[in-house]
Amino acid sequence: SVLGVPQQIKTDNGPGYVSQKTKLFFAAWGIVHSTGIPHSSTGQAIVERAHGT
C-alpha cells in the first residue's frame, strides 16, 4: 500500500460493506470498521456532499 493502511473505515450498511468477506479483510489488515445508523440517509448525504456525488 503506497499511502499506508487506514486505521479505521466508516461505511454505510450496504451488503458489500457488512459481508463476512469484508469483515475478514478488515480484520486481516487490522482495520477498525464502523457503520452508520441503519436506514438513516442523513449520514450518507453528508459523505456524498463531501465527495461531490
UniProtKB/TrEMBL annotation:
PROSITE patterns: INTEGRASE. Residues 1-53 form the Integrase catalytic domain. The keyword Transcription does not apply. InterPro entries: Integrase_cat-core, RNaseH-like_sf, RNaseH_sf. Signal peptide: none annotated. GO terms for biological process: DNA integration. GO terms for molecular function: endonuclease activity; hydrolase activity; RNA stem-loop binding; RNA-directed DNA polymerase activity. This is POK19 protein. It comes from Loxia curvirostra.
